[in-house]
């Protein structure tokens, strides 16, 4: 299922609004304990996404550095 944001970008304003209302309704029905569990899950998810992005950046930089080193060794 698309997010409301991506639906808006695709010009699906009415569908995005309906999705937001449905999500708000579901969240408002949650107990405080359920909402806290959901918030923690999203927090962990976003933290892991940040770790994955940093790892990807580090690996990408290392690959570029190795390519430059390999090229310089081949030119000598």
Automatic annotation (TrEMBL):
Keywords: Lyase, Pyruvate
Protein name, as recorded: Putative phosphoenolpyruvate carboxylase
Organism: Rosa chinensis (China rose)
EC numbers for this chain: 4.1.1.31
GO biological process: carbon fixation; tricarboxylic acid cycle
Keyword Lyase among UniProt keywords: yes
MF-aspect GO terms: phosphoenolpyruvate carboxylase activity
Keyword Lyase: yes
Organism phylogeny: Eukaryota, Viridiplantae, Streptophyta, Embryophyta, Tracheophyta
Any Pfam family hit: PEPcase
């Amino acid at each position: 299922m698309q997010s409301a944001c991506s639906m808006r970008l695709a010009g699906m304003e009415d569908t995005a609004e309906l999705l937001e209302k449905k999500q708000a309704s579901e969240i408002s029905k949650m107990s405080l304990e359920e909402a806290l569990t959901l918030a923690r899950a999203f927090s962990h998810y976003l933290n892991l996404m940040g770790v994955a992005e940093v790892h990807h950046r580090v690996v990408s930089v290392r690959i570029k550095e190795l390519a430059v080193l390999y090229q310089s060794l081949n030119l000598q």
